[in-house]
Write a structure and sequence with these properties.
By secondary structure, this protein is an alpha+beta fold. The chain has 4 helices and 8 strands, in the order H-H-E-E-E-E-E-H-H-E-E-E. Helix content is about 10%, strand content about 25%. The termini are far apart. It binds a DNA duplex (13 and 13 nucleotides) through strand 3, strand 4 and helix 4.
DNA sequence: CAGTCGATTCACT
DNA sequence: GTGAATCGACTGA
């Protein structure tokens, strides 16, 4: 069986470019997640760029740790982190090895595997909410820390891949400040989304948590 | 080694 | 619009 060129996973050199180039170029492309129960496919509609150790908003800002080690490795691998005690978020490592850049996959439109996604997203009242937000996206796609370090350029059999497909036209891509990022990292317009798409998550500024009593 | 808080989501008012 | 949930990574002493 021969895969069409559009179904070919993006090669490593796609991700090896500067993260600000890669991030908008991912919009409109298809993320394929092969779960134990079957495939789920999602059209990417919203992403955020995190630009290495110099970026105050990035997990890599304070250098390499056990958690973020994958970000310092070769591009095209998945960086999955656990946050707020209950959620996971999925990134793809970008730039030359060692630069610790990555793209946070924030939202998308489920195209294949609605049943599988819905099973994991029981609170979703509409299809467009299945992957509307980074933790929702990871939940819908059954992504957790066991996928941290997965090579998304390993081929069609990889549990995770982004297909070549066709990116969203640049005139439909919008940019703005990153969501929920605090401090100096909040100012850069490094969030990218497809204009008017109903699966894009709402923007929220960072709010410092109040102290527990 | 205790304290703080997060690249968020959900229920509820 | 507001606050709770929930836990592990990171910080600074």
């Amino acid at each position: 069986m021969i895969e069409s060129p559009d179904r070919t996973p993006l090669p490593r050199n796609f991700f090896e470019r500067p993260v600000l180039e890669v991030a908008p170029d991912l919009l409109g492309r298809t993320l394929v997640r092969l779960t134990d129960d079957g495939p789920i496919e999602l059209r990417l509609t919203e992403v955020e760029a995190y630009a290495g150790e110099a970026d105050p908003g990035s997990h890599a800002f304070r250098g390499r740790t056990a958690r973020n080690a994958v970000m310092f490795g070769p591009p095209g691998h998945a960086y999955v982190y656990f946050t707020y005690g209950m959620w996971h978020c999925l990134n793809l490592v970008c730039g030359p090895e060692g630069h610790a850049s990555g793209v946070l996959l924030r939202a998308g439109e489920i195209r294949v595997g609605h049943e599988l996604a819905r099973k994991r997203r029981l609170s979703a009242r509409h299809d467009r909410e299945l992957a509307k937000g980074p933790a929702r996206l990871a939940t819908a796609l059954d992504v957790d820390r066991t996928l941290d370090g997965t090579d998304a350029c390993a081929g069609p059999e990889s549990p995770l891949a982004v297909l070549t497909g066709t990116p969203a036209p640049t005139d439909q891509v919008r940019t703005g400040p990153r969501t929920g990022v605090s401090g100096d990292g909040a100012t850069h317009p490094w969030r990218f989304w497809i204009d008017g798409d109903p699966t894009v998550s709402p923007y929220r500024a960072h709010v410092p948590r109040r102290r527990r009593t």
